[in-house]
Amino acid sequence: MRDVAIVAFAQTRHTGTDTGLSEHELIHPVISEVKERTGLRRFGFTCSGSCDYLAGAPFSFVSALDALAAWPPISESHVEMDGAWALYEAWVRLQHGDLDSALVYGFGKSSLGDLRTIMTLQLDPYYLAPLGLDQLSYAALQAAAVGAERQELDEIVRRSRADGRGNPYAFDLPDPSDEEFAVQPLRRTDVPPITDGAAAIVLAAGDLAGRLHANPAWIRGIAHRTEPHYLGMRDLARSASAADAGRAAGVGKGPVEVAELHAQFPHEEIILRQALDLGGETVINPSGGPLAANPVMAAGLIRIGEAARRIHDGTAGRTVAHAASGPCLQQNLVTVLEA
Amino acid sequence: MPSDPLVAQHVLEFPGGYTRTTGPVIGRFLTELRARRIVGVRTVEGRVLVPPLEYDPATGEPVTGEYVEVGPAGTITTFAWVAEPLDAHPLDTPFAWALIRLDGADTDLLHAVAADNPKALAAGTRVWPVWRDRPTGHITDLSHFAPEVTKIVSSVRAEYRLQAGGALRVFLEGVERGVLLGSRCEQCEKVYVPLRLACPECGNTLPDTLELPDTGTITTFAINNLPDPRAPQVPFVSAYILLDGADIPMIALIGDVPAHEVRQGMRVKAVWVPESERTASMANIRWFAPTGEPDVELA
Ligand SMILES: [Zn+2]
């Protein structure tokens, strides 16, 4: 396997409402930032993650290419998923050995429509979408299956929000005090904030990584696994696919100092901690995680960027990043980073 | 800012709906739904997937061609309560989403469950399907599920015509005059009120008719918290009152006193309606009210 590292990460200062920026205007600053950091103007490969249903327009990711220098033609791809999966594709592409750098980005504006309704469109069109099963409802079904104590859930929200206040890119959100249910057993404070935002990461292989960053965050393991889409065919209280991906990525091969988890709801953090076998010595989501800022389609990539940032700045030697996609943590991608 | 010319509404919609082919497996399930049957498909390993999928999610193996009727009842494994339904939801009143293990299935069907409140549901609650009037071969042919019938409410009402003859008639005629009539048994030396024709102890005929005073002593009482058209208010007190000179207490309402001040041994007196309103009925006595005399030590 070829050594590939994260050498630059940038994210927007996320917003809770639409600022009117078009998608390429949203991503242009973060792409400019990683170009500036690395000094690279062109990349061997470019891959993005987004979801056209968020904008309600087909091929919206194509118009977002205006934020790149796409002429003369570049080698480019896209995943209709979180940017974390774009990073996986770029990592695989770099394993071919003929290219040394890749630009990865993810973006989404979830403020344009009703996210609960939009996420229904990702469900299977025969059995689930026609029922109008919405995002908060299926998350609440999973929360009910986990059956965690309210105190533990509140503590996760409180910790995430406090950490978010220390993160200039995330939101300043109140501590849980609201007793109102969104969909029982989920309280309104268990629901991640509607967020518009983008993030970009530069991958570099081999010697190039060392030339572009003093402390490259080396990808020592990366794997993703999936479970059945239909919720009734899974044990919702657990994530077998996150556990498999974590084993395949080698999470347990050393101590994990920091884990950035794509847990949009507090019960998801409980499931993931168990699946990845993270103990009390691991700091979870020091960025605040998705409960402090949740730009859909970038939030998973940001977890990888935040986990890399701890290595870039020398505060950690070994970190884990997790990204999720699909209803109720259906798909899980786990990345192990080392200094 | 609806008046802002730079803000536009944008709708994504497929007018008339988006046509999809179902394939044989999902198509079979939907066809069976149209006939109000729920089927699962058997995997090579023998498990029954409901709703059917083309492949066993555990192994990736194609499923067999064997379809198995399941349910129609099932058991809730997990549910979430929606207090504020969205437009697209199957029910427009608060309801639950639930994973339902239909009888005979090895996986859970996800559907809506109607219930009055979340406390009416639990893991383990048995539910049955409620079908749409005209099934068309769609998952929404199952309108929703509802908890199994475990109790019913049946209405009971019958009308009767009662007539007071015998001793009751004589007693009520006394009440109309403002007098309480009792009778004494010579053999048992007991005075009964209301008036009766035979002694309940020895069976003797009771010849003596006595006029009893409308004062007495509370021997025991009950505080009632359910409204009653005859009662002064809620809570009200009904009590056994031993009329002076009687040996058997008579039941009556207590009034003109807070319920918590009523006590055994309390002296009371009948409160009669005005003479002009009197009839041959116990309604002549509104209730018994405390006289203010010292309490009586009960034997
Ligand atoms: Zn240009």
From TrEMBL, chain B:
ChsH2 rubredoxin-like zinc ribbon domain ranges (all copies): 173-204
Domain of life of the source: Bacteria
Pfam families: OB_ChsH2_C (PF01796), zf-ChsH2 (PF12172)
Gene3D superfamilies, alphabetized: 6.10.30.10
InterPro entries xref list: ChsH2_C, ChsH2_Znr, NA-bd_OB-fold, Thioester_dehydratase-like
Domain ChsH2 C-terminal OB-fold intervals: 67-132, 211-273
PANTHER family for the chain: BLR3430 PROTEIN (PTHR34075)
Protein name, UniProt field: DNA-binding protein
Organism name: Nonomuraea gerenzanensis
